[in-house]
Structures are given as C-alpha cells and as structure tokens.
Amino acid sequence: MIPAAFDYEVAESLEHALDLLAANEDAKALAGGHSLLPLMKLRFARPPLLVDIGRVGGLDTIADAGDHVAVGALVRHCELERDPVVREQVPLLAYAAGLVGDRQVRHRGTIGGSLAHADPAADLPAIALALEAEIVARGPQGERTIAAADFFTGLYQTALAPGELIVQVRVPKTAGAGWSYVKFRRRALDWATVGVAALVRGNGSIDDARIALVSMGPRPLRATAAEEALRTGGRDGVAAAAEQADAESAPQSDTAASADFRRHLARVLTARAVEEALGRV
Amino acid sequence: MATVEKPATFVGTRQLRKEDPELITGAARFVDDISLPGMLWLGVVRSPFAHARIRSIDVSKALELDGVVAAYTGADLEFAAPLLMAWAINDQVKNPPHNPLTKDKARYAGDAVAVVVAESRALAKDGVVAVEVDWEPLPAVTGIREALADGAPILHDDFGTNDAGSWSIAGDSPVPTRGPSAPFFDDPDLVKIKEEYSLARLIPNAMEPRGVVVDPNVAMGEYTVYSATQIPHILRTALVISNGIPEAKLRVVAPDVGGGFGSKLEVYPEDAICLAVAQKLGRPIKWVEERSENYVATLHGREMLQQIELAATRDGDLKAVRVRLTVAMGAYLRLVTPGIPMLGAWLYHGCYDCEGYDLEYTNVFTNTTFTDAYRGAGRPEATYAIERAMDTLARELDIDPVELRRKNFIPTESFPNYTIASGLTVDSADYHGTLDKCLEVLDYDAVRAEQRTRRDRGDRKLLGVGFSTWIEMCGLAPSRVLSALNYAAGGWDAATIELMPTGTVRVLTGVSPHGQGSATVFAQVVADQLGVDYDDVEVLHGDTATTPFGMDTYGSRGVSVGGVALHAAGEKLIAKARTLAAHELECAEDDLEFAGGNFTVKGTDRSVGIKALAFSSWTAHNLPDGMEPGLQATHLYDPPNFSWPNGAHCCVVEVDQDTGSVDIVRYLAVDDCGVQLNPMLVEGQVHGGVAQGIAEALFEEAIYDDEGNLATGTMTNYLVPGPPELPSFEVHDTVTPSPTNPMGVKGIGEAGTIAAPPAVINAIVDALAHLGVRDVERPATPERVWRAIQEAKEGRS
Lengths: 281, 797
What we know:
The complex is a heterodimer of chains A (about 280) and B (about 800). By secondary structure, chain A is an alpha+beta fold. Chain A has helices spanning about 15-25, 35-40, 75-80, 85-90, 90-95, 105-110, 110-115, 125-130, 150, 225-235, 240-245, 260-280, and strands at about 5-10, 30, 50, 60-65, 70, 135-140, 140-145, 150-155, 155-160, 165-170, 180-185, 195-200, 210-215, 220. Helices cover about 35% and strands about 25% of the residues of chain A. Chain A is globular and about 60 Å long. In chain B, β19 and β20 (about 505-510) form a beta hairpin. In chain B, α15 runs parallel beside α16 (about 560-585) and α16 crosses α17 (about 610-620). Chain B is globular, with a radius of gyration of 28 Å. Chain B starts with 19 loop residues before the first helix and ends with a helix. The mean pLDDT of chain B is about 95. Chains A and B meet through α12 of A and α3 and α20 of B.
C-alpha cells in the first residue's frame, strides 16, 4: 500500500493540464483519485507524473442546456446525487450516482474519472450508455464529442486519445421515460456483481427501450436483443426480454460470482428493472 | 455539561469506558505512532509463489538504492531457535522448524524470505521490490483433501507426508467420557444421521494491522520491543527462546492495540526479525504491516472439514455423538495451531445430554498462510457442527427444532458442576430459562405463521428461523488441565493492587486488553471492593517491565481469570489493612467491619479510612511488629475450572428464491455469562461477536486460486460486512453465576462469534426446507443459496 515515487503537478488551467500531459505520455490525470491511487498503492500503476486537475476551473458545474444536462467532468457523485436539475431531468443518473461506492467515495469520485477509467464493474459507464450520453473530450487537437456507445472500447479502454481529457458529459433529458437501476451486490459499498439499468418510453406499447448491463463483460454493454424483444412484445414481453438479457454478454467468473450465475442474475434483474421502469412511465 | 451522579456501587453499572477519550480523539499511542531517533524502517520480501524452492537471492539492487541501509536473507540472520510452537498436542505431532526467514523454500504465498532496512518506509518498500529472488516454482496444494491425497506435493520433505498428526478424545483426553459412541451407532433401533460441513478459511481483520518497533541499547544488551500484540508476556518468553536474549534484558510493551480477535495472539516472524536486525545494526527498527500484507502474513482461522454423526431414539432422545475433523494448519505450526480444534473437542455434543461420545481430528499442512486462534478458536467450529446437526435430526424425526433441543438439554437441576458426556465439568447453566427468554422475545408462533403464509402465497421471499443454543468453555485455563493437554504453559494470571500514599490506586494486571475495556471493568471492581473513588483507580497493563508476569488476553479470560486474580488481591490487601486498622484503633480485628472504604469498630463511631491507612502504611511510623511497610497485594490465580457461558440465539432471515440473497430480518441474542460487571461492555462484546459470526455465515471466505495465490487478498474481495449489511441486534441476558469463582463471572468475549453462524445457516435452510434444501455451505453466498435451491428442485423433479 505504498506507491512508487512519482512527481506531482497542479494544473492551473485546462490548457496547462493538457500541456503537462502532452509533455509526458506516461503521466496520469488525477481527479478524485479513488481508482488511480489504490492501483498506485498496490504498484499495479506506476505513473511517473500525476497531473492534478482538481483545481481546473469550470469543470465542476451542472447546467440545464435545453435538451440535455451538461455535467462538468469534475462533478462529484454526491453532487449528481443531490443536484435538483439532475434529479428532475435525469433521475436515473442521480439515483445511480447515489449507489456508487460509499459516502467517502461519492464525495471524492468524479463522473469524468469514472467514465475515463472504464471499469466494467462501475455504475456510471453503463448509466451513460443507457442514457445515450455524449462525452466531450479536449486534447492537443482540440475538442470532440464521442457518443457513449463508441466510448467504451474494452477492459479499462476508451476512445480517448493520449493526452485527451474528458471535459463534459452531455446527458439527454429523460422526461416522460420510466427508469430503473438495479444493482446487485454483496455489500452496500461493493461494485455491482451485476447491474441493470433500464429506460423505457411509450404509451401502451413500448417505443423506446434501453437496457445497459454492468459487470457482464469487459466493458459496459447494451442488451440489444432484450431491448428489441421489449419493443416488439410491449408490456407483455418483459419475461421474453429478460430471457435474452445476457445474449450479447461475456461475463467473467471471479470471487464474487461465476459467469453462469452472473448470466442468471442479468436475466432476473432485467425483469425487475424493466418492471420498475414501466411502473414509472 | 450534565453532571453524572456517581453510583453507590460500580460493579453491574454501565460505566463509560476509561479508555475511550484517547481512542476517539486520536490521542492513543499505537505502534505506528512510535518514532525514535535514528530509527530505520524494515520491509519484508515475500514469496509470490505458494510453493517454490529458493535457488538464490540477490539483494545488490536493493543495496544500491539511496537510503537503503541493509538487506538480509535467511542465511544472514542467525536465531537461537526456530519460532516457538507451544502446543505439541501429543507425541505424534509433526512440528517443522519455522525459521523467521525461510531458507530452503517458500511454503505459502507470502512466506518471508528476506528483509530490507532503509531510512524511510517508502525506501524500504522500494528496496523490497528491488530484491531479486531466483525461484524454482513447485507444485502447490491448498485444499485439505488434496493435501492428503496420494502424490500430493509435500510441504515438509522430512515428514514425507502432509499429515501433521492426529488427536482423539479416546486416546488423548485426560478425562473419561461417559462411554464410547460405537455401541449406539451399531444399535439398529436408533435413528442415525451423518452430516458433513466445510468451514471456510477466515482472515482476521483487526482495525490496526500488526507492527513492531524495537529499541536497542546495545551497550547494555537491553532491548525494548513494542509490538501490536495481545500477548506481551508470552511474546517475551518466545523471543527469549528464539533470539537468545535473557528475560531481564528484554522488555515487551503492547501499547494501545487496535483489536486482535486472536490474530495478535501470536509469535510472528516479524517480531523475531526486527529484534535480530536491531541487535545487528544497533538502531531502532520499525515494521508496520501493510493492509494487503495482513491478508497473507497474519494468521488465518477456522478452515476444516467436519463429519458429525448423531444417534437418537425415534422420539428424539440423543444417545451418541461421533465426530471426525480434518483441519488446515497452513504451511507451519504457529504458537498453538495444532491445539485449536482441541479447544472445541469436548463441545461437539453442545448443551445436550448423551451417553456415547467420540471425536478425532487430523491436522494437515497446506501451501497456505498458517492458521491459529481466531475469535472463539475451536468452539465456533464445535457449535456449528452440533447446532446444524440438531436441526437435521429434528427434520429427520419430524420434531420441531426447539422441542428437540428442550428434550435433550442438560436439566437445570443437574447443576452446579455437572460432568457432561465428553468428560469435562460444566459449572452452571439454565438452558431452558435462556431459551424461554429467547422464544418469548421472538414470538415463535407468529414467525412460524408468517412463514406458512408466505409459502402458501407462493412469495418470492421466503422466511426462515434458526436457533443456536450454544455453550462454550472459556477462561483459559486451569494449569493442571493444560498440562494434561500437553500445552507448554500455565493458564493462571496475576494482579497487583497498590494503594499509593496520596490515596490513589495503582492496579497492575497480567492480562493485556486490546479493546475490551478491562481497565474500566477492573477499576469498577477495585472501587467497590476497597471503597475508593473510581476515578482514582488507574489500571496499567501490557508492559513486561511494570506488570506482573501473566498470561495475557485471549479466550475470554480477562475477567474470568485476570478479574478474579484482581479480586483476590483486593481481599489480601483488605486483610492487611484490617490488621493495621486494628492496631491503630486498638481493637481486635474481628471487632472491625469494613464498608465504604472505612474500618469501623462495631457498635461505635470509631473508624479509620483505607486511604489514611495507605498513608500510615507508607510512612511506616507506627506499624504492628513484623508488618512490612506499604499497602499493596499481589495474587496469582489459577482457575480450578473453565468457565461455561451459554445462550440461545435466534436468527430470522428472508431468502430471495430468484437471486439467493439473504436478508437478516431479526437477530436475537440471549446470553448468560454469569454475573455482569458492566452490562454495556457485555452488550458491546455480543454486538461485535455476532457481527463476526454473521460475517462467517454470509460473507467472509478466503479463496486460493489454482496456483495457490490468495484470490481474496484485499478488502474489496474479502468481504468484511459493515453496518448496512447487519441488522439491529436484540440483545438480552440471563444471569447464572459461576460457582467456580467468588465473583460469579464467566466470559463474554467470544459468545457472539460462537453462537451466530449456525443460527444464520439454520435459518436459511429452514426457509428452504420445504423445497428440499438440507444444507448450504458457508458462507451462504447468493450463488450458493441459489444453487442449493436449483439442486433441490432438480432432485425432486
């Protein structure tokens, strides 16, 4: 639990942070530090330089931007949990943020850090998929927007280029949609053994169904077969949809659960999440 | 600030802990708070392999680092003897020499092979990483069954086997059983059941990891060892043996210690290594365990395979119990490893009367961290087996589990001092009364009705109720009994009370509390007994230079041995004070009565206070002829028997059939630990103990992967539950004084951990029994519960 020696720089501005990262390709940006620092303490990660972006201005705001909510990369989970705009416009995000880790983690961890770290067991990457959020990244080449569906490319892998930082997450408002996030874990502070986020729209029939899975593969994923079954089967298609919840997944076996049990849980929890979401339409 | 009215007597009241202000304001002094001039940090190079021969070790890259002062391998540090193993259970025990740094091969992932000494903790760690070991990996074996199989990798080549020796009641117990079990199991008219349980390996997680600071005075050849230990006195003896320094030159201090649960009831390689390195370098040496290091380098507990058979009449009269255990030792035998199962060996028939009893256990080496005492040590294992098996027998006979227990309880009128079937003598109990209280609080009929309703409705969440009517033997231990069990030391303890000239009281105890609150309880005892001010009593412990030689704290012995020693010292002190009082008041001793700190001549108002006597005793100006100056007394108390707490615990669970999740709806504990000195601390012990017991039943499990690496080596995957996972405990009591000591006390430190696991698992099985589920291996993870349901359904279809 003692990291290797490293240098530490405080970025005074976004440009300064990008310059520091550009000058040292092995440098890591430090935001809440709740994923990076444990890896360093176990010496699984040995970055020569940490660029602390915690004091960069303008990245910690939440704004109502018309059709979406603009969430700064440094917004902490606890702020998502209690912000009135997020609670009103994207209740799924506020609710899921409240289930991340424990209170200490939620007061340090940031949405940008969580998405950039791309842990397949983390809550917010799958929530970003379900919400079809857009991730705004800034790098030496300027700014670009990446759809959440294109962002998570593999185990701890993202579409971010070297030297690029997430600056904002644009989350479409979900007014009128039913939502649910069912997180199955042994202890309150654990990562999800399996998590299922559901978002449904429709009046009678189901016009839009989104189901995103946590811990069901090397990256967060959408259960598209189940979504399709819901769209065609409507409210009566929940059981059929749930049966296909794990169709596209590739879960691992570990000390928390076997792959088979994860598949079973994904099916059970999908039924529960969709039922709950339908109840909120 | 509200004023608190002082009670007339302190014993039996809910006194806040004297220890807490320092602990909760961060002013306490743990080993890691100790920093000495010229101090160096030590880091330990550990094996990444479960089993590997050491071809060579190259420390040169570590020594090249700025700030690294020295590096040593097993060949560089000489010890007078291997680490002490104090419990050779019988002549057949196989005890491999345990060198603090292994020289030939590593036998578990985490085995220490070298150390690096540096100017800072971080530099020591850098040095550890820089040490290059040329390993020859060997096949490893981590499972008990696998280790005993033909062709298994052998840990200790000299033995040619991983069988570390066996022990049996029939062959080794110093007391006769009521009879052998075989005739009952051969009786065709009796109903027999045979159960097999697998107890997961557990990893203690004290809030404070281990740590050692050694302060050498090389010129004088004197050493002070500060260690996060439960056993400063025993550790000193062990280090005298391993490091060859005489007792008079070796002082061991246990400063504030943040929990132990048995994990600090140990003589560890790091204790001996830090002492040897301090001796070599002549500078203070400090080592503090990393949390991830704690998972591999600190003792583990529990892992065993149990087979328990019961024979009973058709109407539920238990006749015989037969038990066979196979127990994981890990890679070496540590301080008392081979004897841990013995601490439960007489308890596998629980609080039930029977006629035939047999038990045998076999110890097994595996390529895993050594095991040793973990809270309850042997007694939770025994309680689990009999309490689970009683539920199975109840189902087999179609008798309510509560009725079956009642039918077989040792009758209340058998006490005091009833010799049970296994051969030991239980001091006192009222098993019926304790269970009555539990059922009354529970409303058993209502719970059963709710269970039926849910089943009839086809609810997804089923209800189950489980009981554990537990007993244990604690207050370790009568020295003669320990001798008969081949244990190397005694079980007595010591206390000194000294009335100082100013009237304050100095209490010195041989027990070494590390979170229990003994300083509070002992002050309550002394304040009442001597009639002095509670706030004037200071209790000192955990320092071999100041406290009398004692046997330290473990096995729920703090009050039942250390407290009784203290009480006896108090009686001696009062006797001396009485003689002096009679001298000063010019009366016969028999004419004096002692109350509220004053000796009064009966029927008069002539009196003298004990504080005044302390002063006159100190001045020695006017003492009776032949009386020694000073008002102090010491007593060494050897308990004539164990103490035998008991209780009735009940757990109500909700099981989600679809996910296997278990929620504890209610948890009731009715415990009887005899006379309670401070009920608040009793409740605290029950709360913590039950939490640890629930952890065993539902959460905690050390898992090794196929290569022998610990797969649950961090707090993220070794699941210690916290408040969100635990219910509000409903804690109640009954009080049956022990006849063994004048205070009537027993022990409560391990009760909850002993009682809880079978109550929880019995409740889960009870919830699912109508589906055909008969057992769920512990910890009952959602996956295990769900699979048990699926297998039962498949078995029935």
